[in-house]
């Protein structure tokens, strides 16, 4: 209690700011390869502590030399994530810019879906949420580009080498395209549905992602969530449904 009395208002503010920044950083790297790399660094630090305790001098020396340059190691390993963080800070996403960015993504995805449907061009657009989609991202072509109607149109154009697969949107960016998703094994799913719709259902059965599907046969838009499909969405329905999602 005596320690609590001695804390100044500035100390509470300091703790709060660190907590918010830590939470924000965790949200940025969640579902990315940076998480596995961070776990690896924690394991190395644990090995160093154990080597000192058990007096393993050679191993301790090697790990001490490695950890001595840990700052440089972190910068090299996490350079892509650091660049993405600084870019988002520069765009004002740290304090209140997220809602505006999400709205722009929803608008661009809706516009792209409507345009693709009008041209009878098939598409599969996945919006990652809380559950990471690393295993599918890494099998595709990494893009890390701003989401736009024009880019999505070019990705799914039949002449594009990466049109035959899914485009995955993560943290408001088009992370990758040409990604292949698992097909649903649910026997209750209508056999009239094609591979795109089955892939959309499959990935939403294994994650909390939302998927926009454009049928090239019918020129219709579907929205898939939690293994359930909403067929024949118009622009207003699609935009409203996407806007209600808690996108990261």
Query: How many strands, which pairing sense, and closed or not: the largest β-sheet?
Result: 7 strands, mixed
Q: What percent of the residues sit in helical stretches (DSSP H or I)?
A: 40-55%
Work out the helix count: 11
The span between the termini is 39 Å
What is the typical, i.e. mean, pLDDT? 84
Total domain count: 2
Order of the strands making up the biggest sheet:
2-4-3-1-5-6-7
Shape: elongated
Under CATH, the homologous superfamily of the largest domain reads: DNA integrity scanning protein, DisA, N-terminal domain
Order of helices and strands: HHHHHHHEHEHEEHEEEH
Name of the CATH first level of the largest domain: Alpha Beta
User: Structural class of the helices, strands and pairings?
Assistant: alpha+beta
Counted beta strands = 7
CATH topology of the largest domain: YojJ-like (1
Structural summary, described in words:
The chain has helices spanning 2-6, 9-29, 33-53, 57-68, 70-77, 79-90, 98-118, 134-137, 149-156, 195-206, 235-243, and strands at 123-127, 141-146, 166-170, 173-179, 210-214, 221-225, 228-230. With 248 residues, it is α+β, with helices and mostly antiparallel strands. It has 2 domains: 2-90, no CATH class; 98-243, YojJ-like (1. A hairpin with a 2-residue loop joins strand 6 (221-225) and strand 7 (228-230). The mean pLDDT is 84.
Give the helices and strands, then pairings:
Elements: H1 2-6, H2 9-29, H3 33-53, H4 57-68, H5 70-77, H6 79-90, H7 98-118, E1 123-127, H8 134-137, E2 141-146, H9 149-156, E3 166-170, E4 173-179, H10 195-206, E5 210-214, E6 221-225, E7 228-230, H11 235-243
Parallel strand pairs: 1-3
Antiparallel strand pairs: 1-5, 2-4, 3-4, 5-6, 6-7
Helix pairs in contact: 3-4, 7-9, 7-11
């Amino acid at each position: 209690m005596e320690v609590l009395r001695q804390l100044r208002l500035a100390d509470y503010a300091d703790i709060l700011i660190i907590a918010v920044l830590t939470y924000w950083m965790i949200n940025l790297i969640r579902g990315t390869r940076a998480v596995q790399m961070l776990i690896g660094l924690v394991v190395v630090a644990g090995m160093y502590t154990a080597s000192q305790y058990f007096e393993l001098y050679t191993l301790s020396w090697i790990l001490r030399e490695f950890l001595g340059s840990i700052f440089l190691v972190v910068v090299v390993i996490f350079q892509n994530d650091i660049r993405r963080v600084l870019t988002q800070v520069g765009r004002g996403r740290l304090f209140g810019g997220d809602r505006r960015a999400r709205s722009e993504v929803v608008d661009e995805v809706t516009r792209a879906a409507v345009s693709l449907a009008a041209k009878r061009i098939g598409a599969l657009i996945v919006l990652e949420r809380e559950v990471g989609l690393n295993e599918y991202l890494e099998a595709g072509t990494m893009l890390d580009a701003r989401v736009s109607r024009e880019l999505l149109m070019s990705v799914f154009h039949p002449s594009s080498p990466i049109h035959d697969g899914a485009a995955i949107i993560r943290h408001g960016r088009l992370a990758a395209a040409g990604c292949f998703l698992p097909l649903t094994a649910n026997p209750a799913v209508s056999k009239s549905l094609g591979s795109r719709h089955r892939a959309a259902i499959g990935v939403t059965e294994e994650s909390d992602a939302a998927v926009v599907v454009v049928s090239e046969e019918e020129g219709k838009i579907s929205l898939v969530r939690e293994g359930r499909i909403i067929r024949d969405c118009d622009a207003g329905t699609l935009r409203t449904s996407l806007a209600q999602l808690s996108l990261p």
